[in-house]
Amino acid sequence: MGYPIMGEYLKYNSKIVHSTSFETEVVKVCCGGRLTPGEVAALKRFVRPRGAGTLAATRKRKKRVDDYVSQIIR
Predict the structure, then answer these.
(1) Predicted structure pTM score
(2) Which of 2, 6, 7, 27 has the smallest count of CB within 10 Å of its CB?
(3) What is the DSSP string of 32-55?
(4) From the CB of residue 25, how many other CB atoms can be counted at a distance below 10 Å?
(5) CA 12 – CA 24 distance, rounded (Å)
(6) Of 16, 12, 37, which is closest to residue 26 (Cα–Cα)?
(7) Calpha distance 62→74 (Å, rounded)
(8) Residue 67 is part of which domain span?
(9) Rounded mean pLDDT of the chain?
């Protein structure tokens, strides 16, 4: 671990973790592990369809960039 002082906060069962099972499942997903049916059910509410929100976010970002460029040009 590169930051020993953070060890207490980065443990799977530290006080800042609200759901140890959720933390464990997320780590499993990130590492490419297989989830049990119960774990899949617990994480299902966090699944977002591919591409959901991407177009709207891109439009907002482009509008902000355009606004920034317009301000600089003026």
Answers:
(1) 0.40
(2) 2
(3) TPPPPHHHHHHHGGG---TTTTHH
(4) 20
(5) 7
(6) 12
(7) 18
(8) 4-73
(9) 73
